[in-house]
């Protein structure tokens, strides 16, 4: 389109400043010597040291990581199945209810999801702990996975699958050899999405966790309620850094894969 | 047989962990509070056969919902949630639209990077992004120090623990949800339409008002709902940035459950919140459907 006007430049600059300045300030003050979070008293990494000594935080981080790995993996399997059923399954009894249950958790307020799951767990007498958090997280994140995967399945050229079947593949082989490699990027981004949703969740985890299974967001929330602390700043900085590195690696990897595919397609055209 | 399992496993999972919990909430919202374990009555006693079932249904009533209308706290909380969600959605639109517009007009090679910059905050923890504002907005926080330093104010402003802080928090965390659909709509826009309008004598502002804005409407509507719907049931932002005067229904539900331990009332609050949410959700769905049909 046309060149940017000064108004466009100003709105982009201010907008991105608004999005990023709070995080920049948070990161800067995590290196602050002083206990007072808002007064700069010189550079120091002591809060990182104290953080690594704080066993409550380390325990919570370990619980969170386990919950995230298990729930996102189960959610990816279930969500991919659900996407496949919705896009390819044809008609079956209760299809409308099924697609409703896939989309509803996306717009359901977290407090309601949490409350209803807690009442279920109490109703069937299930002790709350890591297991119940995994169940809860799997339930809402499988819906996100299914949305991501089904958007890829919709644009997918079905004749490739049919060709594989014509050439003698069983349906399972056709899925493994043709469908899965093509939808793999969507499945991976679905897993990543489920993983971050689980790492991030405070409300649903608060309802479904037991006394021995405090997750990191619950721990952060309870200490943040008392006010800002440099230790939490340090922890936040570490989490932001991990996410940034992960996103950069993922985007580089997809870029390389796209280039690779272009090269292969060019070769295929030439031969 | 394979197809049966493929359907039955995710279906069964959602039935047990999504639909049944919801039926339980509905049932408890019709029950009475009691000092017992579980803290409500009646409970279904199948060992008594038919009379147990009849007694169970006879014990259900709408008492909790009547209570919600009688106590000021609840309807004020619903109204104030609606108000806060509406205002913050409008604020997000006012900040998000110019950004999406500038992104759509920027050179081709910048766009992927700009998109990444909008999406990146979404991957970082929601809780941390809200927390970051606590240090900025407090009495001796960064913003007040800055304003005192440049001499705009003489005494620090009280922003943290007010509704203003809640607006800022909602706008900040949900801004990407507003920008992305508007950007998608503007990106699809045919530039020659604007040129035609200008050739036919429109000023740039008029061309924007008569061509660009109406054509980006589906994106604007989608963005507004994507902010409004989660903002309405928000819990973290009002409890960290809001004050004791900030009434939001997500917070009320949480306190009703964890502090007052009144499960039937908490369930009734949840049911009413969901009924309120049905309207924007249906409107949102219809907007998305219309857009899909228009594309085909």
UniProtKB/TrEMBL annotation, chain A:
Keywords: Cell membrane, Membrane, Transmembrane, Transmembrane helix, Transport. It is a multi-pass membrane protein. Residues 61-253 form the ABC transmembrane type-1 domain. It comes from the Bacteria. It comes from Ruegeria spongiae. Belongs to the binding-protein-dependent transport system permease family. CysTW subfamily. InterPro entries: Bact_Polyamine_Transport, MetI-like, MetI-like_sf. It is found in: Cell membrane. This is ABC transporter permease subunit. Its main location: membrane. PROSITE patterns: ABC_TM1. The chain crosses the membrane at residues 7-31, 67-87, 99-124, 130-154, 174-194, 232-253.
Automatic annotation (TrEMBL), chain B:
Residues 78-284 form the ABC transmembrane type-1 domain. It is a multi-pass membrane protein. It comes from the Bacteria. SUPFAM superfamilies: MetI-like. The chain crosses the membrane at residues 12-30, 82-102, 114-136, 167-186, 206-228, 266-284. PROSITE patterns: ABC_TM1. It is found in: Cell membrane. It holds the Pfam family BPD_transp_1. Belongs to the binding-protein-dependent transport system permease family. CysTW subfamily. This is ABC transporter permease subunit. It comes from Ruegeria spongiae.
